[in-house]
């Protein structure tokens, strides 16, 4: 099963930004991995390795190509600079956001991964943000980063990061609680009110563990 201590070490931030001339907000997660930059790049871009820590992804894996995550988002790869960074659209129905992943070597056998999920600031988006805060997308990405950690550590897929039954179990709740607590702190650091940040934490935690059904 996944290592909760890894989730505790993830660095989380919320940042105001602009994208394509639009006012936007970025939910940012950074984590360190005990491997070199070439191997980490392969782990996150090789369609044969991706399902070992994430959902299967199909498509044309190059700049300008399209991709589709099984049962989830699809989009277009806007930028791709191996083995350093890629940027893609993250499209769910009519909603379009952007994901940027950046790798940085920190030693011969150590690398950091920074993931930014960028969303335009809109009226509907602000309603969603008020309810769930950064954990709405942040917890999901944390669970994916945890799966990547597990795969790189011992070669095994971390079962349950997208399984509602396991996420509702004690181990699953520990993953979600650790992540959701971290995103509450990031929300507070961003300037959120304590009471609102706690409401968002509870709503997000309940959503991921199935307690909000």
Structure in words:
By secondary structure, the chain is α+β, with helices and mostly antiparallel strands. The protein has a single domain (4-209), classed as Alpha-D-Glucose-1,6-Bisphosphate, Chain A, domain 4 (2-Layer Sandwich), CATH 3.30.530. Helices cover 40% and strands 32% of the residues. It has seven helices and eight strands; from the N terminus they run αββαββββββααααα. It has helices at residues 4-9, 37-45, 123-132, 135-154, 164-167, 170-190, 194-209; strands at residues 11-19, 22-33, 57-59, 66-69, 74-81, 85-92, 95-107, 110-120. An eight-stranded antiparallel sheet has the order 1-2-8-7-6-5-4-3. The protein is globular and about 45 Å long. The two termini are 25 Å apart. The relative contact order is 0.18. The mean pLDDT is 93.
Number of domains: 1
Put simply, the count of helices is: 7
Gap between N and C termini, in Å? 25 Å
Q: Strand percentage, roughly?
A: 25-35%
Largest sheet: 8 strands, antiparallel
C-alpha-based Rg, rounded: 16 Å
Indicate the percent of residues in helices: 40-55%
- What overall geometry do the principal axes of the alpha carbons give? globular
The overall pLDDT average reads 93
H and E order: HEEHEEEEEEHHHHH
Count of β-strands: 8
Q: Give the strand order, joined by hyphens, for the main sheet.
A: 1-2-8-7-6-5-4-3
* CATH first level: Alpha Beta
Query: What is the CATH superfamily label?
Result: START domain
CATH topology: Alpha-D-Glucose-1,6-Bisphosphate, Chain A, domain 4
Question: Structural class, please?
Answer: alpha+beta
What would CATH call the architecture?
2-Layer Sandwich
Low-confidence stretches are none
């Amino acid at each position: 099963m996944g290592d909760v201590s890894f989730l505790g070490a993830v660095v989380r931030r919320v940042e105001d930004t602009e994208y394509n001339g639009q006012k936007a907000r970025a939910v940012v997660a950074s984590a360190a991995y005990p491997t070199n930059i070439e191997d980490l790049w392969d782990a996150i871009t090789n369609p044969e390795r991706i399902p070992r820590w994430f959902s299967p992804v199909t498509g044309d894996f190059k700049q300008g190509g399209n991709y589709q995550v099984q049962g989830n988002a699809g989009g277009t790869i806007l930028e791709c600079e191996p083995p350093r960074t890629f940027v893609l659209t993250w499209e769910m129905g009519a909603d379009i956001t952007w994901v940027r992943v950046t790798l940085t070597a920190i030693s011969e056998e150590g690398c950091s991964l920074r993931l930014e999920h960028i969303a335009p600031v809109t009226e509907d988006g602000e309603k969603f943000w008020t309810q769930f805060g950064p954990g709405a997308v942040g917890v999901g990405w944390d669970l994916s980063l945890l799966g990547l950690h597990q795969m790189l550590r011992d070669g095994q897929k971390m079962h349950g990061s997208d399984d509602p039954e396991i996420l509702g179990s004690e181990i699953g709740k520990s993953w979600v609680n650790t992540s959701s607590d971290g995103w509450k702190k990031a929300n507070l650091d961003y300037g959120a009110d304590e009471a609102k940040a706690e409401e968002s934490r509870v709503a997000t935690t309940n959503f991921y563990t199935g307690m909000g059904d």
